[in-house]
Write a structure and sequence with these properties.
Layout lengths: L2 E4 L16 H5 L13 H12 L10 H14 L3 H12 L15 E6 L8 H9 L3 E4 L12 H15 L13
Parallel strand pairs: 1-2, 2-3
């Protein structure tokens, strides 16, 4: 019934004046870890955690929380090499969805104001889709940190329920 886009960029950016990734972030793509390093789960966890640091906003880096999450992900991932390189495949292809394909779909765009990969792209995408835009302060190219969950969840829930014709009265109430 609706679409929420988080930390993303217009797929069909032709003719748009979009800021490039920051130089510091681009430097992280220059030297991928050696394939042999992917055999040791602890090494992979360390590499992924450190690899995420440049993506984080100044108010949103929580190494302990991220390390716990990455440890769970690595423990259940059968092919770390494929998992860590799948985004590079998407770069080489034509966009699967263009903004025009989303005409009429109620969309919400959520983006961090400190995203080093897609700086300012969220606002451009929201304009392109004629969609509401929620900017998260101090957040980079990452999931919203827990201190922003109330704002993030409220925005997504409000958008999704409005798009589906649901009102606040229709939502289940959870007692504390």
């Amino acid at each position: 019934a609706s679409l929420t886009l988080v930390s993303t960029s217009p797929a069909d950016a032709d003719g748009l004046d979009l800021a490039p990734p920051t130089p510091a972030l681009m430097a992280t793509f220059e030297a991928p870890p050696p394939e042999s390093a992917l055999a040791d789960p602890a090494t992979v966890v360390d590499a992924v955690v450190e690899g995420e640091r440049p993506f984080a906003g100044p108010d949103a880096w929580d190494e302990e929380r991220l390390r716990a999450l990455v440890t769970r992900v690595v423990s259940r991932t059968p092919d770390m090499a494929a998992s860590l390189t799948n985004h590079l495949v998407a770069i080489e292809r034509e966009p699967a969805v263009r903004a025009a394909d989303l005409a009429g779909v109620p969309a919400l765009v959520v983006h961090g104001d400190a995203d080093p990969l897609f700086p300012g792209h969220g606002a451009v995408l929201a304009d392109q889709l004629v969609a509401p835009y929620v900017e998260l302060p101090g957040v980079g190219h990452q999931l919203p940190p827990p201190h922003l969950w109330p704002r993030f969840v409220a925005a997504v829930l409000g958008h999704a329920t409005a798009a589906d014709g649901v009102t606040d009265r229709d939502l289940p109430v959870r007692e504390a």
